[in-house]
Amino acid sequence: MQRQNLIALILCGLVFVAGFLLKGNLSLYFNLAGFMIVVGGSTAAALLSFRLERLQIVTRVVRASYGRRIKSESEIVDILIDLAIKSRVQGILSLQADESETSILFLRRALGCLVDNYEPAQIRDILNTEMYFFKLRREDSERVLRTIADFLPAFGIIGSVVGLISMLAGIGDTSVILSAIPVALTSTLYGLILSNFLFLPFAANLRERTNQELLLQKIIMEGVIAIKSELNPTILKTKLLSFLTPSERKADLVPLARIRERFHIRGESAPNGSPPA
């Protein structure tokens, strides 16, 4: 997780907890029985719905999505430009060393196709297939997270029903009613918090990261195919910059003065054909 996100999470978490403190003692919101009903029931439902291996994969994916920083689009463009220059100077086989050094698995895969002398159409087909199944795997992990997020509020309601049944069974006995009320109220609270504070944000973060990684993979694919076609590095840079946002490539825009000079533009005409003031 980036430092800014972590700081914001801590601050918002403190504000969230402060909202509970303003209305009473924080210990009033702790109820072991309700927590066990929500967590135990949701875990059992998840184990009945998915294979254990799938749940382990989702856990690793979520951990990696917060623990590993992925390179930005501009960094990928710089790497590909360097590779293109090296390819033209030292030959295409010089990229073999970079294949073993880079930490980006997709780039290593693309470079592997490059040094094995695949045709551009073959490289595009292989990498498109890799991107397609990468997206499917990530969507499957996101589906698991959203399904568990749906389980949690449902078991929160179940916990509330259990508490209400205990209240009705002890009608006339104040001590039984007082002990059952926390189960009835806090179970729904636990289900909503765990669903909306953890699992739905996990799924949203995974989708955002997947979209960013797919964009990086698209840049890599186009760059590697261009290197294979021995495209001029300057032209390659211009092509790859189209993947970046305007703010990231603003420095690479041709100044208006050069455009006027190239097309012999002296100035805009004023209305009615009169010369500009």
What is the percent of helical residues? over 70%
SSE order: HHHHHHHHHH
The assigned structural class equals mainly alpha
How far apart the termini lie comes to: 56 Å
Number of strands: 0
Total DSSP helices? 10
Name its key features.
277 residues, mainly alpha, 0% strand
What do you see in this structure?
The protein is built from 10 helices and no strands. By secondary structure, the protein is an all-alpha fold. The chain has one domain (31-243). Helix 4 (73-90) packs parallel to helix 8. The protein is elongated. It starts with a helix and ends in a 15-residue tail after the last helix.
Layout of strands and helices, then pairs:
Blueprint: H1 3-21, H2 32-49, H3 52-67, H4 73-90, H5 96-101, H6 105-115, H7 120-169, H8 174-228, H9 233-240, H10 256-262
Helix pairs in contact: 2-7, 2-8, 3-7, 4-8, 4-9, 6-8, 7-8
